C-alpha cells in the first residue's frame, strides 16, 4: 500500500479576505475607501457612489490577491443592499 502524503492547508491573509470578494463569474471586487468619517461635507451623490463595488482590473493585483486569499472563490460576493 503506497504511503499517503499529507496536504497542508494554506493560511489566508485575513485583511485581504475582508477587503475583497469574488463574484460568480470569477471577478475580484473591492469596495471604495473613504467611507468611515468626514462625510458631512461630501455631496449626496459622492456618498451614494461610495457603496459601489469596483472590479480589480490590474493582473498583478489580481494575482497577489489570489495568493493572499486562496479560498476566496469559495465565498461569493453578496450584492450591495
User: Structural class of the helix and strand makeup?
Assistant: alpha+beta
Name the strands of the widest sheet in spatial order: 1-2-3
Q: Shape, please? A: elongated
Proportion of strand residues: 5-15%
DSSP, total strands: 3
Describe this structure in words.
The structure is a single chain. The chain has 81 residues and is an alpha+beta fold. Helices cover 27% and strands 12% of the residues. The protein has a three-stranded antiparallel sheet. A hairpin with a 5-residue loop joins β1 (20-22) and β2. The longest helix is centred in the last third of the chain and has 10 residues, at 59-68. It is elongated.
Write the layout of secondary structure elements.
Blueprint: H1 14-19, E1 20-22, E2 28-31, H2 44-49, E3 53-55, H3 59-68
Provide a quick synopsis of the model.
27% of the residues lie in helices and 12% in strands. It has 81 residues and is of the alpha+beta class.
Please supply descriptive tags for the structure shown above.
alpha+beta, 3 helices, 81 residues
Amino acid at each position: 500500500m503506497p504511503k499517503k502524503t499529507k496536504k497542508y492547508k494554506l493560511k489566508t491573509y485575513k485583511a485581504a479576505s475582508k477587503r475583497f470578494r469574488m463574484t460568480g463569474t470569477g471577478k475580484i471586487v473591492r469596495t471604495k475607501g473613504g467611507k468611515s468619517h468626514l462625510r458631512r461635507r461630501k455631496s449626496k451623490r459622492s456618498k451614494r457612489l461610495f457603496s459601489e463595488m469596483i472590479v480589480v482590473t490590474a493582473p498583478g493585483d489580481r494575482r497577489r490577491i489570489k495568493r493572499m486569499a486562496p479560498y476566496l472563490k469559495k465565498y461569493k460576493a453578496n450584492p450591495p443592499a
